[in-house]
Every structure is written in C-alpha cells, then in structure tokens.
Design brief:
The chain is mainly beta. The protein is built from no helices and 11 strands.
C-alpha cells in the first residue's frame, strides 16, 4: 500500500510560480509511474502531467505545456510539479497519483492510478 502526501500549495498572483511536492511511502517508488491531476470547484478532476517510473518520459496536458514541469527523485521518494506563469484558471486542488509501471492503461486517465494523495490547494489571484 502506497501513501502519498502533497505539499507546497498556496496563494499566488497571476504570473507567479509554485512548486508542489509529493512524498511517497509504503512501497518501492521506482515501481510506479506518477501523475498530477487537478480539480477545480464544480469541475471534474483533470489530468495535468505524467512522469514514468525512471523519470525518462513526461507528458503534459495542453493547458499546462510549456509552463509546468514534472520531475522525480527516486532516491527520496519524491515527485515535483514546478508551475510557472500561473493563471487564475490554474486554481484547483492538485493531487498526485501513483500507478504501477506495468499497468498498461492510458496515462491520462484516472484508471491508471491506484493511489492518490489528499490534495493541496492552489489559488491564483488575478
């Protein structure tokens, strides 16, 4: 059983930056692909970005491409989401998620991921 805990959320002005962190425990971190999702009030949870188990492959939603960067440190069981040039529409609760690297499911779907953190709030003011 993998436990995920996000941190780093907060209030930032448009154009600013934040870095979210997610620490994993209870499993072998390098066995898991990782992703970030977000959910804004009144909206469905949506895919933000993905990083594979080794860190050698990443993929982003079009809405964040060029502004957000995912990275991971397998030695520290950490995955990061660096968010730059933030916009008010980025306001949401951000969740990290872990899915087995052997699970061949579309990486942008929630079905790929078995384990979820509790979320961290990001608010971008205009």
């Amino acid at each position: 059983q993998v436990q995920l805990v996000e941190s780093g959320g907060g209030l930032v002005q448009a154009g600013g930056s934040l870095r979210l962190s997610c620490v994993a425990s209870g499993g072998t971190f390098s066995n898991y692909d990782m992703a970030w999702f977000r959910q804004a009030p009144g909206k469905e949870r949506e895919f933000v970005g993905y990083i594979n188990w080794s860190g050698g492959s990443t993929y982003y939603a079009d809405s964040v491409k060029g502004r957000f960067t995912i990275s991971r440190d397998n030695a520290k069981n950490l995955v990061y989401l660096q968010m730059n040039s933030l916009k008010p529409e980025d306001t949401a609760v951000y969740y990290c998620a872990a899915g087995s690297r052997d699970k061949m499911v579309l990486i942008t779907t929630q079905r790929k991921y078995n384990y979820w953190g509790q979320g961290t709030q990001v608010t971008v003011s205009s």
